[in-house]
Amino acid sequence: MHRLFVRSAWSISKTWQRRCRRLDTAHLDVYLARINGSVQTDPELAIGSAKELVEGTLKSILLGLNEPFDEKGDDVTALLKKVQKRLDLALDGVDAAKRGTDTIKRTLSNLGQLVVGVFELRNLYGSGHGRTRRNAVDPRLARLTVGAAGTLCHFLLETYELRVKD
Questions:
Q1: Which tens digit of pLDDT belongs to each residue from 131-162?
Q2: Cα separation of 56 and 25, whole Å?
Q3: How far apart are the C-alpha atoms of 148 and 151, rounded to whole Å?
Q4: How far, in Å, CA of 92 to CA of 103, rounded?
Q5: What is the Cα Rg of the chain in Å?
Q6: Percentages of the chain per state (helix, strand, coil), in multiples of 5
Q7: Residue 67: which region, alpha, beta or left (left: phi > 0; alpha: psi -120 to 50)?
Q8: How far apart are CA 29 and CA 36, in angstroms?
Q9: Is 108 helix (H, G, I), strand (E, B) or coil?
């Protein structure tokens, strides 16, 4: 199963490189490499790297959109809201006449909860914060966190590419 995950993350990386012609995403491969190298042996690092992958993706998209943000002051929620607004993913931007409006809004709302969840898991279990003891994490939780983060980042980068014109 671990090998399947590694191949999946690698294919996400290659997909980003092919699809993101308008945005430099090569630096995000560092996080994917850390994730792939640690999800089984150091799940705390994988969870921490998933958080960094999400944050790096949000900031990269904002830079690509020339959208200002405070590098140290904007938390992940603020970054996500800016990205959602600029990519027409904000809840108030969903066309009320569109079929499945409520479901689309609920799904987009869950997108925000996913980001918050990845960050909260990183704070609870991930690398960082100079812990005084190790929080043993089941690799399954790391794979869930990383999978969710990767799916989220892929969706945001794909949406960026669709929205931004040459």
A1: 556 667 888 888 888 888 888 888 898 899 88
A2: 9
A3: 5
A4: 13
A5: 16
A6: 70, 0, 30
A7: beta
A8: 10
A9: helix
* Residue among 35, 24, 57, 60 nearest 139 (CA): 35
Which pTM value belongs to this model?
A: 0.81
Write the single-letter amino acid at 160. Answer: Y
Rounded Cα distance, 98 and 117, in Å: 29
User: Cα dist. 36→79, 80, 122, 150 in Å?
Assistant: 26, 25, 17, 12
Return phi, psi of residue 165, to 5°: -95, 150
Single-letter residue type at 82 = K
For CA atoms 83, 112, 36, 56, the dihedral sign is positive
